[in-house]
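Anyone able to model this chain together with magnesium ion?
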Amino acid sequence: MRISFDLDDTLFVNSDKFAVEKPLRFPLNRLFKERLRLGTIDLLEQLRSLGIEVWIYTTSFRSERYIRGLFRCYGIRLDGVVNGKRHAIEVQSDKREPMPSKYPSKYKIDLHIDDDISVKQNGDTYGFRVMIIGENDSDWTRKIIKRVEQISQSNL
Ligand SMILES: [Mg+2]
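re: yes, here you go
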């Protein structure tokens, strides 16, 4: 099973509005300024220990190297990264009709986690699973694990 996460306002959050993980130590905190939403590290470790592939799917143009580097500093190995550039090349490509901003089924992603309701609407239209995680939700990691369990049972 493969799960992907949005970055902005999902895993990378504003520390004024969200509880966050500890910042990296100097000088890494100068290189990687984003703050991870509290619970991210445990959640991603737990998913990977269950044998679930963890991907990042972001419309941002942060480089794959940067994204992988940041998570590696927290001890997390990512199984795949789709950024705005990769999406433009592999999903939108030279198609005439506009493709949705994210298209997880292209990458055989079973569940995508996001904060943007329009991604969920696209999922309903194009047939991919999206789970929306709200801003004020301290229980978010448990909800994701529960959903993952439901999906893996339905795939049996
Ligand atoms: Mg977002």
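The helical segments are 28-31, 40-49, 64-73, 84-92, 117-126, 140-154.
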